[in-house]
Amino acid sequence: MLNIALPKGRLGEKVYAMFEKAGFECPELMEPGRKLIFDNPDRDVRYFWVKPSDVAIYVERGAADIGVAGKDILMEYRPEVYELLDLDVGKCRMAVAGPAGFRDREDRTLRVATKFVRITRDYYASRGREIELIHLNGSIEIAPILGLSDVIVDIVETGTTLRENHLEVLETIVPISARLIANKAGFKFKTEPIQRLMKELQKEVEAK
Amino acid sequence: MFIQDEIMDAEERISFLLRELYAKAGYSRYRMSKFEEYDLYSRNKDFLFSEGVITFTDTNGRLMALKPDVTLSIVKNVKDVYPQTRKLYYHENVYRVSAAANGFREQTQVGLECMGNVDTACVGEVLKLAEQSLQLCSPRYVLEISHLDILAALVDAIAPGGEAREKILECAGEKNLHGISRVCREYGVREGAEDGLLQLLSLYGPPKAVLARIRALAKEYGAEEYASELAQAAAVFAGSDAESRVLIDFSATGDTRYYNGIAFKGFIDGVPGSVLSGGQYDNLMRRMGRKDKAVGFAVFLDMLQRITEG
Predict the structure, then answer these.
(1) A65 min Cα distance to partner chain B (Å)
(2) What is the SS3 assignment for A105?
(3) Which of A80, A94, B68, B217 could connect to A173 by a Cys-Cys bridge, CB 3.0–4.6 Å?
(4) What is the overall mean pLDDT for chain A?
(5) Residue of chain A minimizing CA distance to B267
(6) Residue numbers of A between 96 and 135 with CB closer than 8 Å to B
(7) How far is residue B186's CA from residue B178's CA, in Å, rounded to a whole number?
(8) What residues form DSSP beta bridges with B193?
(9) What 3-state class would DSSP assign to B21?
């Protein structure tokens, strides 16, 4: 049985549609209700919905053989997993944003608010820029408005939230999309179904 | 003295079985101190499994560390006996940062090192012992083998150094083929230059099924000699029951500043990460001022708890 962890929410539903087309369907999954684990013995699959940021943990620790996680999560937590495929959905970018017209004064430490501590630290370290890192868990956009930080590092999809808060993208750090990931040991013992799924998903990505 | 089997827990039983296996194969027990001068690790910190070492100041003022690794201590303390070969095994605790424990953890490992005149036969013997070690742990195991010099030859052809090389090797370890292409474009590598590397990483399977294609690819990149070494290493399993459990997988990588040649990892069904890791480390020997060669592996006993509990 192939155990698959999918991220709860819109992205998970989009991804499940791809899995369904690839021949790994489990109709019960889309039925309304509070159930979290779904089996389809005919296809030898078991799906479960988990918090998007937890998918990589389920896969790394072997509770799921495969899963779908955003590149942002993989870069931030660096789980020991295989990254098998870029599914080319859930596309957005990790970006530095700040007040419109913001200019970085290099004579002082830059204050950066973010949820993504490691990505932010690595990005500024690679540019030799000294920063003061402010770790927040949500509503990052208000940090520069309230003077808590100079800029923020966050995921930007359409940029609407930024615009509504008079912020703009200053630099793009990296493009983000959903990735198919696999547990390293799981891949060895369930190679055939994982490779079959990969092949089918690859076809769908290419057909887009 | 006879110890009743039921007194031992499964982890202890496996550790005794492994030690018996290595002793019967002519390896002698090597015991070491729990402490080592910190300097050894600070000079070779990329060789360590994890960042972070527990340190303390000894009574004579020297900065000491609780051992985070066994191989470095053995290389430092065991004399070069070339052209002879030293064959040693150990059963030791190491102290490493574990992401799972969110801090330092004491981990037990049993392993062996073979140093000196290490030839193909020696590497084959160590591979065979690695496979037998896995078999003692569980009947459902996989030993994956790669050759770092083949991988390096193909990576160097597109990115001979610097950040791009590092990023490509990282992607190789993740089976992240789309990531390799992305890094190549980011660093201005000509489109399609990475095709050979992508083919190599896609060749996953039993030696019989993939070796001919690996040879052909290696020939294109002037790495034929290494493909022969890989074939010879895999040949130790030919015709044996283990043959179906041995796979070639170039995602079994290692830091090429320390490792070279054959690298391998062992997996057991039901355990999420590798339970065995090893390979040749002639480059580490050079870095530590030695001319002899070496190969070895470690079995991570704490990783086996999940199967032994079951």
Answers:
(1) 9
(2) coil
(3) A94
(4) 93
(5) A185
(6) none
(7) 12
(8) none
(9) helix
Give dist(CA A41, CA A37) in Å, integer: 13
| Domain B5-306 -> CATH class | alpha beta
Contact across the interface for A191 and B176, Cβ inside 8 Å: no
Give Cα separations from B209 to A140, B93, B246 (angstroms).
52, 39, 11
pLDDT above 50 for B310: no
Domain ranges of chain B: 5-306
Beta bridge partners of B63: B57
* Nearest residue in chain A measured CA to CA from B252: A184
Q: End-to-end alpha-carbon separation of chain B, Å?
A: 29
Cβ B16 vs Cβ B8: under 8 Å:
yes
Asked if A81 and B174 come within 8 Å (Cβ–Cβ), the reply is yes
What is the per-residue pLDDT across A127-139, written as a single tens digit (0 to 9) for each? 899 999 999 998 9
Within 10 A of B88 (CB to CB), how many other CB atoms are there? 18
Distance in angstroms (rounded) separating the CA atoms of residues A125 and B163: 14
Neighbours of B34 (CB within 10 A): 12
Contact A82 B140 (CB under 8 A): no
pLDDT at B1: 61
**B267: DSSP letter:** E
Question: B174 contacts in A (CB within 8 Å)?
Answer: 81-83
* The token pair that represents A78 in the structure block: 């660096």
**Tens digits of per-residue pLDDT, B112-155?**
999 999 999 999 999 999 999 999 999 999 999 999 999 999 99
- pLDDT tens-place string over residues A36-80: 899 999 999 999 999 999 999 999 999 999 999 999 999 999 999
B-chain residue closest to A176, CA distance: B179
Which pLDDT value is given to residue A2? 95
Q: Give per-residue pLDDT as tens, A144-187.
A: 999 999 999 999 999 898 999 899 999 999 999 999 999 999 99
% of residues, chain A, pLDDT over 90: 84
Return the residue in A85, A188, A196, A199 with the most chain B beta carbons within 10 A, the one to mutate for interface testing.
A188
Q: Which residues pair with B278 in a beta bridge?
A: B264, B297
Tokens 């940029």, located at residue: A159
Contacts of A81 in chain B (CB under 8 A): 174
Task: Write phi, then psi, for B293 (nearest 5 degrees).
Answer: -105, 170
SS3 assignment, position B291: coil
Radius of gyration of chain A (CA): 19
User: Using CA atoms in the order A50, A56, A59, A62, what is the torsion angle rounded to 10 degrees?
Assistant: -100
Give the integer Cα–Cα distance in Å for B154 and B223.
9
Residues of A whose CB is below 8 A from B144:
188
Average pLDDT of the residues in B45-55 = 78
